[in-house]
Amino acid sequence: MDNKSLKHTLAKSTRAVLSFIRYTQMNKFGASFTNQIDSIGIREGECILSIIQAEPLSPELTVLLQEKLNHYLQYILDGQLHEERPDADNMQKTIELYLQHPAAGQAEEFLSKVKPYIESEGIKFTLIHSTLCVQQLVQTVRFAHWDGLKPAP
Question: What is the mean predicted confidence (pLDDT) over 41-61?
Answer without folding.
Answer: 91
